Amino acid sequence: MALITVALAGDCTKIPFIDRYYCGRVINHSKYQMRYVTDPNSSSGKNLCNIWNWSDDGGAIVKCTQKYLNSGSSVGAGVVSRRGTDVDAFCFADRDYFVSESTIVPRGEWTRIHDNQVVTCSGGNGDVPRFTAEERRPGLFVHYGLDFGITGGIKAAFTGIVAVVVSPRGNINSFKNETFLEVHFTFETYRSALFDAVLFVGGSRAEYDKLERQVRLLHAAREVFMHFKTVCSSEGGLFDH
User: Fold this and answer.
1) Against a cut of 0.70, is the pTM above it?
2) DSSP assignment of the chain
3) Which of 147, 181, 183, 149 is nearest to 166 (CA)?
4) Strand 172-173 relative to strand 180-181, pairing
5) What is the pLDDT of residues 169-197, one digit of tens each?
């Protein structure tokens, strides 16, 4: 039985302006052992890897050092992380696997991934593939003066994933209920590629009309949408503009 691989994401890639990196990551939720490499095309590689998607021109056989990833394990620092292990390719040595609904990779062939990708492999023996929210990263956009009291509940509901908070200039207090909120990025340092989906918290149309930087919020919403990310609003005021 072929395995289903959900591709979500050399060295980790530095994110501009912040001390964080994009690093490839692989999560093995399947019943079988996988293999991964962190040094494709390295002169010190001890093995050879036939990577079918090595470049835009097609596949290539390159030197590599193959390592094992057991069922239930994971490797790689992941997206928006401190610098750590960067996984560059993976494979199943003894069984075929899917990387999309229409693309099956033969056993022993490797699939290359980029630094901003997290790959979750699951299934086997006829099991229904296990799709989880693990490693997903939603962004919560908040603004001074809006009621973001629901943010704590939203973050608590995201079991197993980390909600990243974005605001105009840093940690803020709600003018309505004096709720303090720790902020991870500002409007100037975030990148839409950091998120799988975003939620704009709080704000009726009248409140958005009064915001001194509403244009920046609207720009953020359009940018995220144009990058094919899900965009939501807790009160809908943003979408009236």
Assistant:
1) no
2) -PEEEEE---PPEEPTTSS-EE--EEEEEESS-EEEES-TT-TT-SEEEEEEEEETTEEEEEEE--EEE-TT-EES--EEESS-----EEE-SSS-EESSSS-EE-TT-BEE--TT-EEEEEE-TTPPP----TT--EEEE--TTS--TTHHHHHHHSTTS-PEEEESSSSEE-TTT--EE--SEETTT--GGG-SEEEE-S--HHHHHH-TTHHHHHHHHHHHHHTT-EEEESSSGGGG-
3) 183
4) antiparallel
5) 666 555 454 556 677 788 777 777 777 78
Q: Which residues contact 33 (CB under 8 A, 6 or more apart)?
A: 68, 69, 70, 71, 93
Give tens-digit pLDDT for 84-141. 889 999 999 988 998 877 788 999 999 999 887 888 888 765 554 444 555 567 888 8
Q: Say how many residues make up the chain.
A: 241
Smallest Cα–Cα separation from 104: which of 7, 3, 21, 179? 3
